[in-house]
Amino acid sequence: QKLSPIGLVLSVLLLVLPLVPGMGDRAGGATRWVNLGILRFQPGEFVKLSFVVFLAGYFFRHEEKIPGFLWGMFKPLFFAAIVALLYLLQPDFGSAAVLMVVTLAMALAAGVRLRYIMICGVLSLFALGALIFISPYRMARVTSFLSPWEDPSGKGYQLIQSLIAVGSGQWTGVGLGSSQQKLFFLPAAHTDFIFSVIGEELGFVGSTVLILAFLYFLYRGLKLAGSVAGDTFSYTLAVGLTSLIALPALLNVGVAIGVLPTKGMVLPLVGYGGSSLLVCLMAVGILLAIWRDNLRGLR
């Protein structure tokens, strides 16, 4: 808690590294990775965790001022906007959007007035919409998501292959390890579209079980937060960490089944991605620590 501002500063400095010539490793049209030769990692994943911890500490330190707009809403969004800007420079629109939503969720948990959150939420939507509109690349993703069959070999190819994979699984799937779409038909089958492969191999039943598992995680995380509501730091931290895993998971599923535009976001705890997996496990570990401390307090 006390070291969270220092942790955030160090994480933000790491987030700048991919933008430094010679340091960033470009892939898929984005420079989100740092390649150290023996190690390749994504600083943006660690920034999400450090920002949630920082924001929980901020709400705790300024607990009495939180209901006001300046301390409760403006300053947290200002901090989030700075980090989001660095994400957009990579570019990583999905992480920027997730960060803003998590910030609003934590502000709501901290006790910020609902009207402030609603106003800032609407303004954030307009800002994100404007960023999509002024970027031909992002607009192409939106248009291909709305009508992928207009360009089945180009912009709509990935979504079409994803839908084919999900549809091929039918009720019980083709069998674990028997997916055909992952054999170089579906791009990013091991990361962003791993849910599509799960849908093909395990079918509607397996996909539903996975979705229910994430929803149960969301329920348990929020229930844990409710049990420590008397401690602003633990309460907002639990809400933030739960949102940090549950929100990208639901967004990833939405992308895979074609109800959301492609965002380049790995499925937490499932998709291949060392940085993402490490951060998710750290978040789960902190949640377990909050649960343990609360259990000791009850005893």
UniProtKB/TrEMBL annotation:
* Localization terms from the record: Cell membrane
| One GO BP | peptidoglycan biosynthetic process
* Any one Gene Ontology cellular component term annotated for this protein: plasma membrane
Membrane-crossing residues?
A: 46-61, 68-87, 93-109, 116-137, 202-222, 234-257, 269-291
Q: Name one Pfam family in it.
A: FTSW_RODA_SPOVE
Principal EC category: transferase
What reaction gets catalysed by this protein?
A: [GlcNAc-(1->4)-Mur2Ac(oyl-L-Ala-gamma-D-Glu-L-Lys-D-Ala-D-Ala)](n)-di-trans,octa-cis-undecaprenyl diphosphate + beta-D-GlcNAc-(1->4)-Mur2Ac(oyl-L-Ala-gamma-D-Glu-L-Lys-D-Ala-D-Ala)-di-trans,octa-cis-undecaprenyl diphosphate = [GlcNAc-(1->4)-Mur2Ac(oyl-L-Ala-gamma-D-Glu-L-Lys-D-Ala-D-Ala)](n+1)-di-trans,octa-cis-undecaprenyl diphosphate + di-trans,octa-cis-undecaprenyl diphosphate + H(+)
Biochemical pathway: Cell wall biogenesis; peptidoglycan biosynthesis
Q: Any idea of its EC number?
A: 2.4.99.28
Question: Which GO molecular function entries does the Swiss-Prot or TrEMBL record give?
Answer: lipid-linked peptidoglycan transporter activity; peptidoglycan glycosyltransferase activity
Identification of the protein by name: Probable peptidoglycan glycosyltransferase FtsW
Q: Which gene encodes it?
A: ftsW
